[in-house]
Specification:
CATH topology: Rossmann fold
Structural class: alpha/beta
CATH class: Alpha Beta
Distance between the termini: 42 Å
Number of strands: 8
Mean pLDDT: 93
Bound molecules: S-adenosylmethionine
Oligomer: single chain
Radius of gyration: 18 Å
Length: 285
């Protein structure tokens, strides 16, 4: 299995009539595991928010820099990747294990397509596992046998919520979701997160409405609404910022090229910046 085979639509739980975040986002990263409905949803969003492809790709670049920082500079050896998405280049365990071969990663996602492809490509060594769980139920993630096998909570852990926080509605109690694991982890553990934000609440609400109407849970926030969830944690320099400003590295690995229909949108965020993605890495003191 290479991960590029057509998705087995007959598999239980896989919907071809509703777009999913994992598949639409994966398309913007150059992935092939998506349906017409996912591509149409992305193209429709691009009519109003042409910066969306850049936002997705900037997040994936941030993922590389954040995981590298945690594994190489801080010495983190255990990662829980909440809402891990479809496998692509430089998945969390590949970045972490490049700098720390003994690093363990538990990948968590709710989308059955992620599970179908992830089991082969993300769980490719004994130090990684992919579990199907709802990240809004962090207790279930903590109790899962694979989490218990791979993560030693007496040692520091990094919990990742990358390009995921906008999938948490206020009714989901995002603070509880983000903080349950990190607040129980030992001091010296880390939280890394990102979410699509807007400085203009009206623009943010417009984006939320569009994506909610497509059937994907979504809540755009302002940067202040995001950082309100993070009290008591110590942001690593430069803090919670637009992702391209988080320790930029012009020499980091390139992402896969995007499909032809998305190519005209590359670079659109230089002109349109009504929505963007904000995030950072924070230490539990
Ligand atoms: C935009 S992708 C981000 C993927 C990856 N974290 C990254 O940064 O490249 C969001 C992922 O979160 C997952 N997700 C959304 N809501 C979820 C939930 N309630 N439980 C588990 N996973 C969820 C989606 O299935 C999708 O794979």
């Amino acid at each position: 299995m290479t991960g590029n085979e057509p998705v087995p639509a007959a598999d239980a739980g896989i919907r071809e009539d509703v777009p999913t975040s994992a598949r639409s986002y994966g398309w913007a990263l150059g992935g092939k595991d998506n349906y017409e409905v996912d591509r149409q949803a992305m193209l429709m969003a691009l009519q109003t928010f042409p910066e969306s492809v850049d936002i997705a790709r900037e997040n994936r670049r941030f993922l590389y820099r954040a995981v590298r920082y945690l594994a190489r500079d801080v010495g983190i050896r255990q990662f829980i990747d909440m809402g891990c998405g479809l496998p692509t280049d430089n998945n969390v365990h590949q970045v972490a294990q490049a700098f720390a071969p003994d690093a363990s990663v538990v990948y968590v996602d709710i989308d059955p397509v992620v599970l179908a492809h992830g089991r082969a490509l993300l769980a490719d060594n004994e130090r990684t596992a992919v579990i199907q769980a709802d990240l809004r139920d962090p207790e279930a993630v903590l109790a899962h046998p694979q989490t218990r096998r791979l993560i030693d909570f007496d040692r520091p852990v990094a919990v990742l919520f990358l390009s995921v926080v906008h999938h948490l509605l206020d009714d989901d109690d995002p603070r509880r979701v983000l903080r349950t694991i990190i607040d129980r982890a030992v001091p010296g553990s880390y939280l890394a997160l990102s979410q699509v934000v807007s400085d203009d609440p009206d623009k943010g609400a417009e984006l939320s409405e569009m994506i909610l109407n497509a059937g994907v849970p979504w809540q755009t926030r302002t940067p202040d609404q995001l950082t309100a969830f993070l009290d008591g944690l110590e942001p690593v320099d430069p803090g919670v910022v637009e992702l391209s400003a988080w320790r930029p590295d012009p020499d980091q690995p390139e992402l896969a090229p995007v499909d032809e229909p998305l190519q005209p949108y590359l670079g659109a965020s230089k002109i349109n910046r009504r929505v963007y993605q904000c995030g950072g890495v924070l230490r539990r003191p």
